[in-house]
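Each field is listed here:
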Amino acid sequence: MSVVETLKQSSTTAPSKQDDDGFTKVEPKFKYKVTPKKKNHKKKKSHFKYQDPSDWTLDDMIKQLESYREKLIETRFYETLVPLLTDHLLPRQCDTMICYGVGSMQDSIAARYQFMLALAIKDILQLKKGRLSIYDPVMTSLDKEACAHYDLKVIQQDEGCKRSITTSTLFYMPHCAKSLYSNTISANWTKEQLEQVTFIGNDFLDVYITSQPDSTLRRECPYLIPASTIVESTPFPDNLFAITNVFNNLAIQYFPASVIPQEDSDPFWSSVPFEKKDDSNSEDKDEDEKDRK
């Protein structure tokens, strides 16, 4: 069974209601006969779709997210993307996934699609329960309840995207600021760690390196400059998703061990100031270690 078929079977939709109203037909001699109206097989629009998101319950949220899952996996974009994810992510053997910057699923259409793609990637990677963590400062309490429903761990404090890793990790960061990608790289600026970092995020070369002034890059995202010289990048399918600001300019990106400089004395490593590792996320990392045992 394919990944698309498996995900289709996991999707749920609310049952449709059919009209059963009658109408009055006039007969000769003023006799009246009630004739049943033909059944309308058209789905009624669910009431929850018209609620203000601030009034949603958790059940409303899950129904919405599942409808977005269904719409996503029916697209040509997703059909084209799945083989790319399989071919380029599975060899990376990621056992952990960190989501930064998805936004609020309660308030954003783009966030709902990006969140459901994250769940699809989780299934492709066959991550164990508790191995997918998420953080965005704009997430609401209902967003966090939905994350718990799908077995995602909500990171409790802002790490500034400086999660230092010890195993192969996918950082899912659609449309984050360039400084945040630089922060993630800086927190893993060793040959052992860098080869275990995989990104799904803005294409470093196309979005930043080839289109923005060097002075801006050095000031706002210094680690992207050397990292972009060794990055392996596979763009997402272009112009196949109807809403153009959801998955545009994204790519699968990683740093092959064969091109990472192996000598600590290599100018590659000293081209940026080495930053002291931030231990503020040690509590989450301790929990991660427990999950592996």
About this structure: The radius of gyration is 24 Å. The domain at 59-292 is CATH 3.40.50 (Rossmann fold). DSSP finds twelve helices and nine strands in the chain. The CA atoms of residues 162 and 184 lie 5 Å apart.
